[in-house]
Amino acid sequence: MKIFDASSIIYLLREAYFPGAFEIHKKRGYDLAVTKQVYEELEKNPETFNLLNSCKDFLVIDNVDEQCISRISKRYPWLHEGEISVLCACIDKEQSGESNCIVNEKLRKAVKEEKTRSARFSVD
After folding, report:
1. In this structure, which topology does domain 2-121 adopt according to CATH?
2. According to the lineage, what is the superkingdom (predicted)?
């Protein structure tokens, strides 16, 4: 699964003019997803939202853990709600054994840091 935040979608659709990037991922067998928070953020810009909807087949992850959002927003106050929701969705998917990838370098680094922190403080 590829989980996108708003900035990566905006870049591919509006700046790079490369909506085919999503099709490439689908052809390689990946599910494409955004969180409910990212979806709502993209809804605020009709042009980007229409471009996203024309790509089709995006899953909307709407069950992001609110406790995770609260914890991560305190730990990384510079991240906005969409980014935090993507980070929490990734953490949840990894904990349930699903393979996924965040398409945002800043968030990818935060996930690695979060996993390291969890490993140090986990109780067996």
Report:
1. Rossmann fold (3.40.50)
2. Archaea
